[in-house]
Design a protein that fits this description.
Elements: H1 5-25, H2 30-42, H3 44-73
Helix pairs in contact: 1-2
């Protein structure tokens, strides 16, 4: 997974949509939501990096499992 500018813009747009939905759905929470929104956008990049690193770690383990399975499925040759 690559965290480039397009991915960050999509995540930012998704967060903006989420904030807009919560803003219209819960009128009692509007003041606190507007206070937290800048912090949420500020934390967007570190959170994306965290999930990206978790995804890379799990894909690395999957690759190692398939490599081990491929190696164990090959018949041994007697010399």
């Amino acid at each position: 997974m690559k965290c480039d500018i397009k991915m960050m813009l999509r995540a930012g747009l998704g967060l903006a949509v989420l904030v807009a939905v919560v803003y219209t759905t819960f009128p009692a929470a509007r003041q606190s939501l507007m206070a937290l929104t800048p912090a949420l956008f500020f934390l967007l990049c570190p959170l994306m990096m965290f999930f990206m690193m978790k995804g890379m770690q799990s894909s690395c383990h999957d690759e190692q499992k398939t490599t081990k399975q491929d190696a164990s499925s090959e018949p041994r040759r007697l010399s």
